[in-house]
Amino acid sequence: MRNILTIAGRELASYFATPVATVFIVIFLVLQGALTFNLGDFFSRGQADLNPFFTFIPWVFLLLVPAITMRLWAEERRLGTIELLLTLPVTQGQAVLGKFLAAWAFCGVALLLTFPIVITVNILGSPDNGVIASGYVGALLVAGAFLSVGSALSALTRNQVIAFVLAVAVCFLFAVTSYPVVSDFLTQNTPALAAIARRITVISRFDDFTRGIVSLRDLIFFASFMGFWLFLNTVLVEHRKAD
Amino acid sequence: MTAGSQPALIEIDGLTKRFGGFTAVDNVSFRVPKGEVLGFLGPNGAGKSTTMRMLAGFMIPTSGTARICGHDVQADAVAARRMLGFLPEGAPTYPEMTVSGFLRFCARMRGYRGSELQDRVENALRLTTLHGVRLQPVETLSKGFKRRVGLAQALLHDPPVLVLDEPTDGLDPNQKHEVRTLIRGMAPDKAIVISTHILEEVDAVCTRAIVIAGGRVVADATPAELEQRHPSGRLEDVFRDLTMQAAA
Prior knowledge:
heterodimer, A: 243 residues, mainly alpha, 12 helices, B: 248 residues, alpha/beta, Rossmann fold, six-stranded mixed β-sheet, 9 helices
């Protein structure tokens, strides 16, 4: 556990030692704000809730989370520091978990910095703050899910651009399957795939959270989703670290 | 007691690494007891770094085993790595970290806390004369300083086994001299493997030399013995003979 936290601490500090943290947080907040207020009609719909905010958040994460994860392992391999890190007395699993937790904590910080919008709805009306809280929990879980995908794919390559594009593409698959266009198409053409797609989609699980429903099933889904990708990540690191 | 009668701290048995059809390291075996400084020589691409990576447990061998202080580097990896100080090829470090920040990270990973951590870092800075740059980010340092940061990291926990891949590459003559003095000074208590293609270094610090070419061990002797293998008595000529034969 100590090793995991030490790695996570180093990783997190490195975001803030480089412009990565500032650029990410600023772009995240601007993009999320612009989408909520303009496309989401945050003011003119006249309701004291954060639905427009939560509608866009998975899509913003879809684009920005891979920008965090692309460097997690690809950079480590390009610099050769992976050789240093993995010859310290740590297991591969600890290193994977440490890096993942750092990225997740960082997303958490970015998410926390959206607090003005919560204050805004509370001044303008009386929203259900329980629903808002569960929405935030859901958003953090979506970020974690995308992070685990991106982290695993980052271990595949030493090229950050490839890691980014792969992560966006795979995360997109898990996001888009919850939309009727896709699920209807799958139901008509490949019913077997449609059943699977319904189960693994990230966004319809997230929708439960934005309605204020925190169910054990959804929590288990996110936990096993992240667990699967982090396990894959560990296997990929083990097999490709020295290539 | 001679070095040979000590238990071997490094044991390598039949280590082989193939990349597709290419055999980078072919059935390499050797033992290094405490007190010995083994010079690992060979032309570029001979398999020096690959062997060291397998010894450090970073690269998985195609076949064969490596043990550090009796711990198998694959099966008992964490225990083996505790006993090992490893300087990887090119001395990689995290560029945005400061020298002391980087060493503190390594010390924490090695389980040190509080004042002991501080002492370890201070000691490593002192051994590698990095005190003056300890607050600088690694990326702002020259090649020689970066190499010494990598060396400091390997020495931090005073390990019984040191594996150093080209420890003096990129250092100026004075720094080279310092590092060699440092290695010689530590030698009696440790088993040390250094790879190099600077032949004078072998004479200067090594008690034994292994020449590797095309992935195979082509010579394993003391530097003095090696020198006698050529009429000129120069290590350079012996090295050329051995490695050219293997390439042909």
